[in-house]
Each structure stands twice: as C-alpha cells, then as structure tokens.
Fold this protein.
Amino acid sequence: MPESSRNSPKSVDPGRLRLDGDQTLAGTLLGMRCLDCGISVFGQAVFCQACSSARLEPVDLSPAGTLFSYTIVRVPPEGWPGPVPYVLGEVELPEGPHVLAEVIEVTHEALKVGMPVRLALQEVQSGESGPAFMVYKWAPATKSAPGNGEV
Amino acid sequence: MAQFKPGREVVVVGVGLHPFGRFRSKDLATLAREAVVEALKDCGIGWREIPVAYFGHVYYHGMSVGETALASLGLTGIPIINVENACSSGSTAFWQAYWGITTGMYDVALAFGAEKVPGGPVTVTAAGSPDRYIGGDHMMAGYALRMRRYMEETGAPASALAQVTVKARQNAALNPYAHRKDTFTVEDVLNSRPIADPLTLYQCCPTSEGSAAAVLCAREELGRYGLDDSRAIRVVAASLTSGNYNGRGSDHSAFSPYRTEPAAIQAYEMSGLGPEDVDLVQVHDAATIGELQQVEALQLFPKGEAWRATVEGRTALSGDLPVNTDGGLLAMGHPFGASGIRMVHETVTQLRGEAGPRQVSNARVGLAQCSGAGDVTTVQIFAR
C-alpha cells in the first residue's frame, strides 16, 4: 500500500466529526448551540439558523438517536465509495438535529422507523487510490453495544 | 412577514415549448432559443420589442448562455439575467419577469428556461464534497425518505403512490411534447427497477432536455403592443420563498415538503383566492410522493388524504381537481430550468381552452408550484 494510506485517516468533515484519539474508531458528532435561543444545529455555524444570533458555543452531540426514516439506495450517486445497495438513514438526535448517514450492521428486514441507533465510524477509501476518510455512520443500538438497552 | 403592494395587473400573452426528451445534436442555447421563438410567435410580439429577459438554467454550459441564446435573434442591448435556483430556476425567472412588470419598471418581459440534465442520480453538492462520501446527497433518496414517513403516518399503500405515475402517463399520452408517453399499470410501476426503496424507477422523473418560454405584459399596455386580450391570462399571484428554520436541518417529513405552505399562503393572500377556487394544478412531482405532499401543502386536500383522492381518480383529467395535466415532471420530463415555465405553459394553455384532448372543462383558475434545492418554492396562480 502507498505510504499515505497507512497514515491515520482524517475525519470526512472535521466540522461535523471529531476523531477521538489516533487509530481508533471513536469519534464525536459536533454541533453548535445558540446561547440566546438555545437551539442546536449539526455541524459548524457562525450565526444561529433560528434567531441569527452570533453568540454560539460548540457542543458535542449525542452519539445515539432514533431512526426517523430510511431508504435502501440501489443506484448510488456519483462519487459514492461504498457498497451497493446501501442503507441511508435519517436519524433524530435528542438535541433536535436530524443527521443523514449510512446505516450499517443491519439487515434490510430489521430496519424499522423509530428504532434506536448509535454512532459508528468506518474508514472509507475515496476512489481507487484516493485518501481514506473516517466517516460517521449509524448502527442498531442493540448490536455490539449490549449495555445500551433494549433487545 | 411578507408585504405586498398591489401593482399593475400582469398577464401572460405568449407561451412556447420545445419538446422534452433527449436532443443531443442541439446545444443549450439552441434549445432555449427555439422555445423563445415559439412564445414570440404565439403572441405576435416582435423580438425587438422585448425590453428585458430572464433565463433559468442550472448545469454549466459555459457562461452567459441566456445572452448566447438571445444573441442569435439579434443584438438589442437589453438586460439579460441568468438565473440559477435549482429545479425552480425557470419559475424564479418567471417570478422576476412578473415583478419587473407589476412594479412598473417594464411593460413587457420574457422569461425562459432550458436544460440538458445529465443522466444518473441528481446530486446537490459539488463533486468531492463530504456529502458524497457520507451518502446523503441523492435527490431520489431524499424523496424515498419522505415517502417512507408519509406511508408510515398516513397508511398510504405503495399502490396509491404508483397510481400517481399511472395518471401522469395517461396525461402525457395526450401530450406530444412529453418525454415519456407510454402508459403503465400500477403493477408495471411497482415492478420497475428499484432506485431507492420504496421508490421504483417509474416513480422518479426522467432527467430530460428541453426548454420553455413565456412573454408577460402589463395588461394596461396590451393595446400599445397590439396584443390580443382575449388570449391573455392573468397572473393573480406569484410568490417565491426559501427555507426557514424548523429545528432539524435535514428534514424528510411526511408533510410540508420544502416549506411549501408559506409560499402557498402568500400566493392565496396576493390573489384573494383560496384553495377552493382552484380548478387545476401543476405541482413539483419529481417523484410520486412529491405530488401527494405538494397538493396537501397547497391545502388542496387535507393532510394525509391526497393518496386517497388519487386512488379515487379525483386528480385525473376527469376528476374534480386535475393535477399535472400535461404529465408533470414524472412523464413530461424534468429539464430543471424549463420545468417551472413548462408549468406556466400548461396552465395558460388550459385556461385559454387550447389543451385539445387533455382540456379540463370550465377551467378558470390554475395554480403552478415548483420546488428547488435550498427549500425554494414558487407558487403562481393564474386566472382567465
């Protein structure tokens, strides 16, 4: 393998995903919270989307949420580096924002609106020889995380 | 929040359309010009009398395509504005033409749009954007997310959504300009290739090429330009909105897609008309679910009821509220920059009583709604 791809992969978007430690699959979704009206958004913001205040603070968003909706994408968009088909999920976080990402470690039959999911990171190679990124995904909360609740 | 000052009455005097489909031998400027020529001929106004033009398109085909298209008609020195507002680029160009006249700045204006949409799934972000690796940038996947929510919350069966395509194809079969004219059964639609479950291929609009144009005029100036009042159709509302904050960011809910409701409310206020006055509708049916959501957001059917109305035939040409009478995006096709003005073309043609085999009887008020990325919504209401 070329030298570059053995280096620790970078976050797919450091404004949305912070990697917690080298060579690990740990990470945190990032958001901004408005000090004036209290709403939180996913990703970076300079002004509040609800009230336009500039008084925002960075916040770590919850690593767990519920599946608001999902689809099985059979024809991927140009530039999609993963397997086909893939499951795209829209997940509602307790703080309010909805976050779109692939749902992994799940059979199509097990998918259900409202199911609890947890954040899962995966290394993704962009193109045949492009750099690798760590990408945020969702996985069922019950799988590989038995401490997390329902069966 | 929105404030409207009543201005001069505006009418559409001419409409033109180039068939939708694939036209590999024509470049974008040529496509665009051909619809403009049709619109000028339709009302009989000379090109040299057009004082301003707005051109909607999205995909890059070189700079200033609007100028290139119109230069071939003769260089007249008028302002020509290229408009990009995603799938509502054409309807935004129309909105600008309307406001240019109603405010008194111009007596006449041209709105036109054209597109050559590349094949394959439509994305919003630029190549190399993180969203391509994350997998969420996929227009039809977004519709599929909305469709699942809608089906969960309303109990709509898949067959009801497929019926939207069946109806669109029936209408398009009567329309020589349509990209897709062959008709299907519900089973054909459900058994077509899955794109993003639960959406199948025939429930997604084709990516198309085509163009459309409209000439608008201040009603009080019709005589000065020798224009025919009997074929003029009044624009009684033209609204345009973009997204407002709803607490979610990405949002593929069962109801009020793209915040259509605010644009609808503005348009009803401007016109002094209500949903009950509307005789026929063109909406943004890029996917089957889009049509159901839009007619509900426009308050034409109660929330969660449009699927039932579709199954009962109420939105068919013979129904009490025909929707997407020319085949809509699903069958007419979807060249982004042209689609919004194609809706104007169909509405004007219907209100003039010139729609031939797909004529809606006693059509007096028509509504056109177009959506675009960025939560853009346009709504226009036309009256005979």
Observations:
- The CA atoms of residues 53 and 80 of chain B lie 5 Å apart.
- Chain B has one domain: 10-120+206-383.
- Chain B is about 35% helix and 20% strand.
